[in-house]
Specification:
The chain has 497 residues and is of the alpha/beta class. It is 40% helix and 17% strand. The longest helix has 53 residues, at 281-333. It starts with a strand and ends in a 5-residue tail after the last helix.
Length: 497
């Protein structure tokens, strides 16, 4: 991958004074010179679309903005003279050229990683930006910190409004949209609801997903969610990304305050295979993308629950002699119940009772306030290597994580999972910290990324990072990998106190 980037900006006579820190009445010069932080990065990915790209860039640079703007074009190995056109006509654009052609999702990631703006807008080359579109989306994100992504009104070249926001796809909506069944009066309302065609698109609305033709994202949200899935070839990366935003509690909005003309070229509405055109590769990519995203949205929760039930049942049957022996040792070691039952905060803030083998003496919770000054953990949690409240057998239970075994029954109940974020007592949950609360977007687990990465040796901010990463990347493969990593982590005992 090679990079070509040339910056040509007309210089004011007062440039020396500006650079020396002297005030200048025309702040627009500072923006044109790129002095100060970038407010908005526009990322455009194109392949052999020089004419569309010329119109798109012209529409952007024909306007005046009250903020710092940069435009990044990721050229996906074009051979139609795109680079020559940009060198001659748009030298102020940062251009990244791929020697090898990549899927659009990977190109979007390349553009995002090069961007410096507070917000990043992904824009298709077959668009023309009308005045106020950028300002409308940026203003909305400024005023709504819970919004991780938004899209503006897309209009066709004939002036009609495109259905650019949708509900989640299902096998039924895919079937109806790809066959003549969708035009049947019986099923047309289903298609209209999916396309949100029963709404005038003149008001702000939270939606499931928006088309990637004009999609603006907040950097803090992408830090949580991660980049696009570059395995997806095309046409589903925006759906998948919106779903991952939604999973972590970042909202997606349609904002009609500004408009972008989009030359929507839908080639997927032809049959998958025809005698005239052969294989419809565009539709094939649509279907492949749908299967991958639908697996994450609908099939994964079912697969995860099956793993939980089978794993917990097998664990209880195999470990029942060990659990009986552990209960007997606890009873012989110190007075008090065998089990410790504590209210914890689960998925979406729901409370539940978590079961553990008792590892502390009776009344241990009443002594917590007196030990707070000895807390070795960061954040709202309490951890102490040499906790005086531990019983003799309790120290060994903690070292080998045997006190956690009764949570297999929580897994069978469905209040916990084999893998997930560690549930905390309500007093240790920082309900005022929005990022910390994103941990509650998944069912809590007996094991997880935090547990296999060092447990109490990890500070709380990193703990939150690991849980958010787990939620954003949930898959059967990740579940199995963490399960396989759990036993070695228990044997090492790192952070087990």
């Amino acid at each position: 991958m090679s990079v070509c980037s040339t910056e040509v900006v007309p210089m004011p006579l007062e440039l020396d004074a500006v650079l020396n820190g002297e005030p200048h009445p025309d702040d627009a010069w500072l923006r044109r010179l790129g002095i100060g932080p970038v407010d908005l990065s526009v990322v455009i990915v194109g392949t052999d679309e020089s004419e569309y790209l010329r119109e798109c860039l012209t529409s952007i640079y024909s306007q005046e903005y009250g903020f710092n703007l940069e435009v990044i074009v990721v050229d996906n190995g074009s051979v139609d003279g795109t680079l020559k056109m940009m060198d001659e006509e748009f030298q102020q654009v940062r251009c990244i050229r791929n020697d090898t052609r990549y899927p659009r999702s990977r190109n979007n990631n390349i553009g995002y990683q090069a961007a410096e703006g507070k917000y990043v807008l992904f824009l298709d080359p077959d668009t023309r930006v009308l005045p106020g579109a950028f300002e409308s989306m940026m203003g909305f994100l400024d005023q709504n910190p819970e919004a991780g992504m938004c899209g503006c009104r897309l209009i066709d070249v004939d002036g009609s409004v495109q259905m650019s926001s949708r509900t989640w796809q299902t096998p039924l909506t895919v079937l109806l949209r790809r066959t003549r069944l969708g035009a049947c009066p019986l099923f047309r309302p289903v298609v209209d609801r999916h396309l949100m065609a029963d709404w005038d698109h003149n008001s702000v609305r939270e939606v499931d997903w928006i088309q990637g033709a004009a999609m603006m994202v907040r950097r803090e949200a992408v830090a949580d969610v991660g980049l696009m899935d570059d395995v997806l070839l095309r046409y589903s990366e925006d759906i998948d990304w919106c779903f991952r935003f939604w999973k972590l509690g970042w909202k997606v909005f349609y904002v009609p305050g500004g408009s972008v003309i989009h030359a929507y070229r839908r080639t997927s509405n032809r049959p998958l295979v025809s005698l005239k055109d052969g294989v419809n590769h565009t539709l094939w990519m649509h279907l492949r993308g749908f299967l991958r995203t639908y697996n994450r949205q609908a099939l994964f929760p079912f697969e995860k629950r099956c793993i939980d039930i089978l794993g917990a049942t097998a664990g209880i049957l195999l470990l029942s002699p060990l659990m009986v022996l552990t209960a007997l040792l606890i009873k012989l070691d110190s007075p008090g119940p065998v089990f410790f039952v504590q209210e914890r905060v689960g998925r979406d803030g729901r409370r539940f009772f978590m079961y553990k083998f008792r590892s502390m003496r009776q009344g241990a919770e009443d002594l917590l306030s007196a030990l707070q000054h000895l807390n070795e953990a960061t954040g709202p949690v309490f951890k102490m290597r040499e906790d005086p409240r531990l019983t003799g057998i309790g120290r060994h239970l903690r070292r080998w994580s045997l006190d956690e075994l009764p949570q297999l029954f929580n897994v069978l109940q469905g209040t916990m999972s084999l893998i997930g974020p560690r549930p905390l007592p309500s007093l240790q949950v920082d309900f005022g910290n929005a990022r910390s609360l994103r941990r509650l977007r998944a069912t809590p687990g007996l094991s997880g990324l935090w547990q296999v990465s060092g447990r109490s040796e990890i500070d709380f901010s990193r703990w939150v990072d690991l849980d958010i990463r787990y939620i954003a990347q949930q898959s059967v493969e990740q579940e199995i990998l963490i399960l396989l990593s759990t036993f070695p982590a228990v044997v090492r005992g790192k952070g087990a106190y």
